[in-house]
Amino acid sequence: MGRTRFSSGEVMSETAAVILAAGLGRRMQSSIPKVLHRVAGRPMVQYVIQAAREAGVERIVVVLGHGADAVRQALDGDCESVVQPEPAGTADALARAAPILTASPDCRQVLVAYGDCPLLTGDLFRSVIEAQRQAGAAIALVSSIVEDPRGYGRIVRDPDGGVRAIVEEAAATEAERAIREVNAGVYCFDAAWLWERLPSVPRSTSGEYYLTDLVGLAAQDGRRVCAVTAPLEITAGVNDRKQLAMAEAVIRDRVRQRLLEAGVTLVDPATVYVDATVRIAPDTILYPGTLIEGNTVIGPGCRIGPYSRIVDSWLGSSVTVDMSVIEGARVGDGTRIGPFSHLRPGAEIGPRVELGNYAEIKNARIGADTRIHHVSYIGDAEIGERVNVGAGTITVNFDSESGTKHRTVVQDGASLGSDSMLVAPVTIGRDALTGAGAVVTRDVEPGMVVVGVPARPLRRRRQSAG
Ligand code: UD1
Ligand code: CA
Questions:
Q1: In ligand 1, which atom is closest to the CA atom of 184?
Q2: Residue 128 class from Cβ within 10 Å (0-12 exposed, 13-18 middle, 19+ buried)?
Q3: pLDDT at res. 425
Q4: pLDDT of the chain along its 466 residues, tens only?
Q5: Is the CB of 446 under 6 A from ligand 1?
Q6: Best residue for ligand 1 mutational test, from 37, 49, 83, 114 (most atoms within 8 Å of Cβ)
Q7: Catalytic residue at 374?
Q8: 144 lines ligand 1 (CB under 6 A)
Q9: CA torsion through residues 269, 274, 275, 277, sign
C-alpha cells in the first residue's frame, strides 16, 4: 500500500495528536492550571494545538485533568478531549486517549506533545512525524542539547548511537545526570505498537507511570527509536515562573519578527510588546514603549506610541495614538488620540475625531470630525458629528442617590463651552451652544444658546458658515 506523501499544508489523516495537559503544575505556585498560564497573551496549550494544526494533523485529543473545565474552554472547538481523573503520570495520561484513537483503525501514527511547551512549531512536528514514517520506528522523539539539563529526562544512547532509554532526573545515576542531551517531550509513535505496549509501562518508584519508559520497551522489542534534534528555543518546557518568563521572551520576539516581515515598522523592537493574538496592517509604525494586547486589530498607516497601551480594540487606518490607553474601543480612520487620553470599553470613535489631552471616553459614541481637545469626561453618551467639546466639559452621568447612570445626547454641530456640566439624562439639540460654566439640567432646543447655573436659554445661535 503506497503511503501518501505529504507536503506543507496537506492534511495528514493517518496521524492523530495527543496533547497532555492534565498535570497540576505545582512548580508554578499557582491556583491556575499550568497550561492556562499565558505567553504573549495566549494560554500555553493553544500554541501546542496551533503547531499541530500547522503540521496538518487533523485529529487532536487533549488530555485534561486539573482544572479540566477551565482548560476545555481554552481549546478550539475542533479539539477532542478526554479526562485523566488522577495525575498518575504521562503514560497514564496518554492511555486515556487510547479508547477513542484505537477505535479508528486508519490512525497509524500518534504524535504526542506536552501542553506546557509553548515554543513548539509545526515544522518540528512535521519532521518527527516524517522521521518515524521513514525509519518505520516504534518511536521517533525529539531531543535537545542543553547547557543545563536539570529538570529534563536524559537521553541514554547505545555505543552505536541508537537511543536506548530516557532516564528521568529522579532516577538518574550521577553519570546519567551529566548527560546534556535531554528529552524534549515530543514523540511520534507507530500507533499499533504504542497501543499494544502502553499497558506494559511499569509503575516508577515515584508511583507514576512515565511515558518515557516506552523507549526502553521499544529497545526490548528490538524496534527502532530514532531522534530528531532541535534547539531549546523550540523545545523548552515551562515548569516554573522563570521558564514562563523565558518562553515569553522567545514568543514576543517571534511576534516582532512576524510584524517586521509583514510591513510594520518597530522603531525600537525591544520596547514594543505585542500579543500573539494581535493583527496589524502594513505601514503602521509602533513607537517605543508600546503594548498591544488581546484581540486588537490595527489598520494600515497608523502611528502608535510612544508609551501607549491598546487592549481588545479595533483601529481603522491612519489613526494616531500618542501616550494613551485604549481598552475595548473602536476608532475610525484618521482619528488622532492623545497625548494622555483614556478610551474605555464601549468607546466608539468616528473618523477624523480629535481627542486631546486628558480626554476620557467610556461607553460613548463620538461622531465624525468632533473635537474633544482638553480635559473632558464623556461617559454613557452619544455625541454627534462636528461637535466642539470645550475644555473641562463633563457628562454628569452618575446619579449617586439612585446609583444609576443616565445618557447624554449631543446632536450634530453643537458647541459646548468650557466647563459645561451636562447633567444626564439630557439632550443638547443640533447646533445648540452652551456658555462657559453652564450646568445643563434640561434639554436644550436645536440652535439655542444656554448659559448659567442652571443653564437657561439666552437667544438663538448665530451660525457661522461651515
Ligand atoms: C517531562 C518528561 C521529561 C521531559 C520533559 C520535557 C516524563 C515522565 N518526563 O517531564 O522526560 O524532559 O517533560 O519538557 O514524561 N501530565 C499529565 N498527566 C500527568 C502528568 C503530566 O497530563 O499525570 C502533563 C502535564 O500537564 C504536562 C506534561 O504532561 O503538560 C508534562 O508533565 P510534567 O510534569 O511537566 O513533566 P516534566 O517533569 O516536565
Ligand atoms: Ca514540563
A1: 6
A2: buried
A3: 97
A4: 334 444 545 667 899 999 999 998 999 999 999 999 999 999 999 999 999 999 999 999 999 999 999 999 999 888 999 999 999 999 999 999 999 999 888 899 999 999 999 999 999 999 999 999 999 999 999 999 999 999 999 999 999 888 999 999 999 999 999 999 999 999 999 999 999 999 999 999 999 999 999 999 999 999 999 999 999 999 999 999 999 999 999 999 999 999 999 999 999 999 999 999 999 999 999 999 999 999 999 999 999 999 999 999 999 999 999 999 999 999 999 999 999 999 999 999 999 999 999 999 999 999 999 999 999 999 999 999 999 999 999 999 998 899 999 999 999 999 999 999 999 999 999 999 999 999 999 999 999 999 999 999 999 998 764 4
A5: no
A6: 114
A7: yes
A8: no
A9: negative
Q: Is 185 helix (H, G, I), strand (E, B) or coil?
A: strand
CATH number of the domain residue 351 falls in: 2.160.10.10
Q: Is the CB of 120 under 6 A from ligand 1?
A: no
404: CB partners within 8 A, 6+ apart: 398
Ligand closest to CA 143: 1
DSSP assignment letter at 414: -
Q: Whose CA is nearest to atom 8 of ligand 1?
A: 210
The per-residue b/e assignment along 356-366, b for 16 or more CB within 10 angstroms, e otherwise, is: bbbbbbbbbbb
Helix (H) or strand (E) holding 93: helix 90-95
Q: Is the CB of 93 under 6 A from ligand 1?
A: yes
Measure the CA–CA gap between 169 and 177, rounded to whole angstroms: 7
Cβ neighbours of 26 (radius 10 Å): 12
Rounded to the nearest angstrom, the distance between the alpha carbon of 239 and the centre of ligand 2 is 5
DSSP 401: T
Whether the model clears a pTM of 0.85, i.e. scores above it, the answer is yes
Q: Do 291 and 211 sit in the same domain of this protein?
A: no
**46 touches 275 (CB < 8 A):** no
**Is 250 domain-assigned?**
no
Which of 197, 225, 241 is the endpoint of a domain? 241
| Closest residue by Cα to residue 99 from 132, 53, 63 | 63
| Nearest alpha carbon to residue 90 among 70, 121, 113, 67 | 113
Number of Cβ within a 10 Å radius of residue 428: 28
Domain match, 93 and 58 both: yes
Is residue 257 domain-resident?
no
CATH of the domain at 132: 3.90.550.10
Query: Hey, whose CA ends up nearest to atom 12 of ligand 1?
Result: 152
Write down the residue that cell numbers 516506552 correspond to: 214
Most ligand 1 atoms within 8 A of CB, residue of 20, 212, 215 to mutate: 20
Into how many domains does the chain fold? 2
